[in-house]
Amino acid sequence: LQQYDRLKQDAVLHGPLQVPAWGANTVRSEFAFLSGIAAEHLGVHRFNPYRAVAGGWDVASLASYLKRLGYRTVCIHPYPVSFYRRDRVYPRLGFDEFLDVRHFDESMRSGPYTGDAAVANLVDRIVREATQPLFVFVITMENHGPLHLEQVAAGDVDALYHAAPPEGCDDLTIYLRHLRNADRMILSLRQTLEQCAHPASLCWYGDHVPIMPAVYQQFATPSGEVEYIVWANWQAKSQAATMSRADALAQRWLQAVGVA
Description:
There is one protein chain. By secondary structure, this protein is α/β, with parallel strands linked by helices. Helices cover 38% and strands 14% of the residues. The chain is built from 10 helices and 9 strands. The chain has helices at residues 2-9, 26-35, 49-54, 62-68, 86-92, 116-129, 156-160, 170-194, 213-219, 246-256, and strands at residues 13-18, 72-76, 97-99, 109-110, 113-114, 134-138, 201-205, 226-232, 244-245. The strands form 3 sheets. A 4-stranded mixed sheet has the order 7-8-1-9, sandwiched between helices. It has a 3-stranded parallel sheet with strand order 3-2-6, sandwiched between helices. The chain has a two-stranded antiparallel ribbon with strand order 4-5. A hairpin with a 2-residue loop joins strand 4 (109-110) and strand 5 (113-114). Helix 1 crosses helix 8 (170-194), helix 2 crosses helix 10 (246-256) and helix 6 packs parallel to helix 8. It is globular.
């Protein structure tokens, strides 16, 4: 992952990230990042906090904070906005606009879902057209499971491994194929922000580890920690890796780039 490693080398912050989801339930990590509220403080709503928000819970978020500072707040998620009631939740969290799968077409798919390249292109257009401070929250779909819905393509093993994996690792091969595209997305986003005339930063993190039971039988089950990177287009402060939590990451990001 050449671009990921390069971004981490130039990062303001980076390290392992503890998230409240394992294998699925993206909304748990999503809500933790946006709200700054730890899962242990949510009671039964830790399993799907958006039910409470859709039902009327008023909760401050990263988006509502930035909106008060004059930012336009946009979410891009190439899946139907009605899923997890995001059509009701995201306006309550302070988002001005939600761009869902209707802003993409079939030609933009990579596997069953919209590819990361198409999402990066939309981010680029929004950034270039911006007339005010801008916060774009992106929830990608390309590497979303179930991974077994796809087949290993000819050439994948040679392109993705130094040595062929054990039998039963097709899910890993498919995951790595899409991870390679995520790495290309990092380059695209970095180029967009490097060309931006204003200070701009990128906070990149994983929402949860993938579900790959056969692979984990071969190589062991992961702890559930993911990784995060905070990068800015006006400074490079490579630091030693520091552990963070999803519910603390947004505040650390804003403090690191001077917005908090």
